[in-house]
Amino acid sequence: MSNDLRLQYEVDEALADRVAELAIGPMPQRQPETRFVVAKFLAVVGGGVAIMVATGIQWNIQWQLILPLPVMGLAFAFPFGMWGLLHLFRHVAYRRVRRGLLGAFDGLEHRRVSWVFTDRGFTFESALRTVRAEWADLTCLWITRGFELIRLRTGEEVAIPSPVLTPEVGDLIRRKATVYGAKIRHGAKSA
């Protein structure tokens, strides 16, 4: 009887979404259109000005009133601008993880990946390449929420998406990395 552990999976949109959610967090949701909100605000302000003009209210505005308005506007706008910028960065990171996973299979005949883990080493097979390595060739194991990346002495890197990684395979990889003196690094995010 053989002690081989096998992993087989298909890299598809659903797997890419799960990996990106683990690595970055849930896909940022689209915000409601703000044009309608801005139009309502302008209508209210315009209506107020029209009422003031119609009723004959005199405009006695001096620079002491005008000068603080831009400063207050910037003070209120800055947190919202930072929030929007962080939302944009998170959205770009999410898309980058998805494209990185799916992009490796563009133009190939299939997206199936298979791994075979033994006591001597492992074999990784995809439509693009096949990597066979002994555990002694393992130099670094990088563990993140989205992937477990295996770096070899030859400079090659192969990654296993966390959603398809079984506990038995994860334990075997960590145990062999420890036995053969590979660096084990933990990262909070993969993007």
Task: Explain what the structure shows.
By secondary structure, the protein is an alpha+beta fold. It folds into two domains: 87 residues, Pleckstrin-homology domain (PH domain)/Phosphotyrosine-binding domain (PTB) (PH-domain like, Roll); 91 residues, no CATH class. It is 45% helix and 23% strand. It has five helices and eight strands; from the N terminus they run βααααββββββαβ. Strands 1-2-3-4 form a four-stranded antiparallel β-sheet, covered by helices on one side. A four-stranded mixed β-sheet has the order 7-6-5-8, with helices on both faces. A hairpin with a 3-residue loop joins β2 and β3. α1 crosses α4. It is elongated and about 90 Å long. The two termini are 41 Å apart.
Global geometry: elongated
* Category from helices, strands and their pairing: alpha+beta
Instruction: Give a short account of the largest sheet.
Output: 4 strands, antiparallel
Strand content: 15-25%
Q: Tell me the Rg in angstroms.
A: 28 Å
How many DSSP-defined strands? 8
What gap, in angstroms, lies between the N and C termini? 41 Å
Give the spatial strand order of the biggest sheet: 1-2-3-4
Specify the helix fraction band.
40-55%
The structural domain count equals 2
- Overall pLDDT: 82
Order of helices and strands: EHHHHEEEEEEHE
The count of helical stretches stands at 5
What are the low-pLDDT stretches, counting only 5+ consecutive residues below 50? none
